[in-house]
Protein 1
Amino acid sequence: MRYISITSAHLPWSFKVHAANGKFVTLEDVFDTIYRSLRTNITQPEFHSFSSEKDQRRATRAYEDRYRRQRSTRSYEEEKRGGMKRVDFLMGRTRFMGISNNGRRPDEWHLSVT
């Protein structure tokens, strides 16, 4: 397939993965797309798309935990200044467990994380 769509129960958007070689999607395409998408800063409407203030607080806490894990002062400040990213919507569920076809269409896949 030249592209696939990946969704997650923890994210309000999907990843559109396009084949870099123009012929078929590779694992590199999948990993690169997921990585780049999750490192994207969130927008105000995305932050307010959470169903509850509790989820907003949990995502904010994930952001704070992410920048506080940095070992060097420079990295700490860089991450903190960089702001909240889409990865923070996973609220700490950052262990990649794979992708699987959702069974409806061959180009629709589901991201599993813990």
Protein 2
Amino acid sequence: MKKELYINLVERKRRGRKSFAVLLDPDKTRTSQIPQLAEAAAEAGVDYWLVGGSLMVSTHLDQLLEKLKKHSPLPVILFPGSPAQVNPRADALLYLSLISGRNPELLIGQHVVSAPLVKQSGLEILPTGYMVIDGGAPTTVSYISNALPIPSDKWEIALCTAMAGEMLGMKLIYMDAGSGARNPVTESMIEAVSTEVSLPLIVGGGIREPEKAYLNCKAGADLVVVGNILETQPALMRDMAAAVHSATPVSMGIEITNSSSL
């Protein structure tokens, strides 16, 4: 099984390098937009593409991925809302287990059904402990998952959940306030989890300002994911990437480049 991207993520964490990913929702991204988005990502210094959504009404995922790989050298990681979003044109798959919920289908059920398809896909599989955090408003992911999110002020629940995920063998932890969240994950919760969990920590949902992306990284996030706000304010891509990369400790003496150089 391929492990290139996982090794890359672990090495970046070890070296203190913060990463920035742009999330593309196939239902909201037209294939005609890809060349412009790829150019903007290259200029901004984006590190990864994430592709997926809680629902997928559109039928052009295959064409979107094909065009994205054609126009951008950045790694493409699937962030699937269902097994239907598994596609071999990407580089890797976040194999999500909703460890913050109690819905057996999203803990293991869908994984059992999709296992042959996932294994045959040739994708690099990234076992990910997925944690939905209350973002102050109903989100698609909380509705579709039929699971209560972790309260935003209960950092101890998030911490114990992430610790359990690590001890169960997850390779990544993803804390997500969800698309359209009113409030992003707090720095105190991020810090609590990152202090006790050694896995690369992904944080997303409700991040609308570069300063928040920076503070998330300083609190311990290794990879910050931004999606919705860039649909209406694409110029923020450069500022978000710069904010994330500026959180890398200067003392590390690391030159900030995107992940394709590692």
Protein 3
Amino acid sequence: MRLTLFACALFLIACGSDNPVEQRKGSVDLAVLGEGLVQERYTGEIWVRGNVAYTTTWGNRGAPGNAVKIWDVSGDVPTLVDSLIVPGASTLGDIQASDDGQLLIVATEFAPGGSIIVYSLADPIKPAFISRYNTQLTAPGVHTAEVERVNGKLYAFLSVDPQSGNPARLVIVDLSDPSSPTQVFTATMGSPFVHDVFVRDGILITALWNDGITIWDIGGVGTGTVANPIPLGTLRTVGGEAHNVWWFHNGITAEKRFVFVGEEGPGAIGVQSSGDIHVVDVTNFASPHEVAFFHVDGAGTHNFSVDEQRGILYAAYYNGGVRAIDVTGDLSSCAATEKSADGRCDLAKMGRELAHGPTGRGPVYIWGVLLVGQRLYASDMLNGIWKLAPVPLPTG
């Protein structure tokens, strides 16, 4: 999160509004199954595995953002079962379980220094401390930590904050021995941030804010490795502020053509946000180009979760709630009336928004969204955690 926090962040009740962001014609309500409240801290990231959800906390809401909330989500209403206080952290970033469910990794920022903390999930509702990885290079703060397996080995890709003249950097850590993580690669990158990454099929894509995105080979198409990433292509997305990435593997057509890039513009907690979703054609990694975008007036996107089998992108849109967007078909082809002045297709004008929510529940500020099976989970900075039903299957 890189919101510009105005005075409204400190006076949320006075500045907040019950007026929802205008909904698109034809967009239906996402059904709300249940809500788990967190009111003493701002809720940040979310991760769900099985019947357990983990949410981080961020910033300061009278209490510091140093707690991981642990939820039982086996029923419709998320139930808080425990809170894990993370030592030596004033705010938390990413949280993610390893693909085998054995480890939980939490990113920390700021005083007394940035780090990742590795926990055992032998008991999923009682994460047990294994190790803390922090070096001089991570000291400014680890904003995001993407945990992915490459060629059978588990890594954490750390996006480190800039600080005091030290530029932002990517640090890649080998988690093969969770008790002793080791650095395998680092490089400065981003203007001014390297904010997040996406890793798949031996390809690394970095979100570099005003430098756009860079695509790297780490074992997918050439001689690159995790320890020696080789750049393949770069694109500065329209508007800059490239925040997050999803490389879409279309479960219907098997295409791997499009990358979705989130733009995080200025905003104020509970009040306003800005930034579009940008659609980039990566048919040729060496020559990526932007072909479409999705815009919501008065709101901006944060994180994504994509139902690749059905072709639906779920986007956290802060005060605009969750937006479900149809990403099937050729996103680069549209009528002249559906194009912007620069020739990109406008997904909103194409009627691609399918659903939105939660609605009628007062102000929301949705940070993260995660689709797990037949349920959709959203983390809300103001309210906690929502459990939603995905876009309904068509009938008939």
